[in-house]
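Subject: for your reference before the review

Hello V.,

The reviewers asked for a structural picture of the protein, and I figured it would be easier to keep everything in one thread rather than splitting it across files. Below is the amino acid sequence we used in the manuscript, unchanged from the supplementary table.
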Amino acid sequence: MRTIEIERLDISDGDVVLDLGCGEGRHLHALYFARRLHAVGVDLGYEDLRKARLGLELNPDLESNPQRYCSFAQANALTLPFPDGCFDLVLCSEVLEHIPDYQTVLDEVYRVLKPGGTLAVSVPRTWPEWICWKLSPDGYANSPGGHIRIFRSGVLRRDIERRGLHFVRRHWAHGLHSPYWWLQCMMWDSKETSHAVRLYRRFLEWDILQQPLFTRILDKFTSPIMGKSVVMYFGRAL
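And here is what came back from the structure prediction:
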């Protein structure tokens, strides 16, 4: 399940790209196979990085893709271990809502992004996230390692633009996922055993793996209305 539209990014062979907060590699793997480039995955969690690397190594297409490179680094987004202006593209998907000092993360992103480079960032959308917090103020809103703020996309956009990046476009993603999270929040204490939650999870897994036309059309129409995430794209001037 990807939030950022990799296929619509302006990336070329030979680019060096950063997936900041890569987790288990859902965007990183797509970047790696999109072009003959060098993909770098950074995360604070060692176990997530291990799974991201293992998932790449187990891909049957790995051997048939020469001139592609992938690196991993366990690092803090507040102090990235890279020189200035070394990435053509930076992805930061569903990360900033977890970090208290997200402004410093934006400073670091700007620092490592090349002039002419692209930033793609996603965060939970305001009103679906607000419902989650209201439905489960003691669970969802206070989960260890969970979300510590609700972003307004306009505020985040201005925060990024103040650093010298220009806004390109935005879209919303995962319209079918918001009800799943609302359902979990309503049944927070019993969500692991809830039959309803389990059925909806199986539906989403089926959708992700099979991508039937019906749910693709449904997601296209529901995402602008109740998409769980907002995705924004920016460019850095030359």
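For the response letter, the relevant points are probably these. DSSP finds eight helices and seven strands in the chain. The mean pLDDT is 94.

Happy to draft the paragraph if you're swamped.

O.
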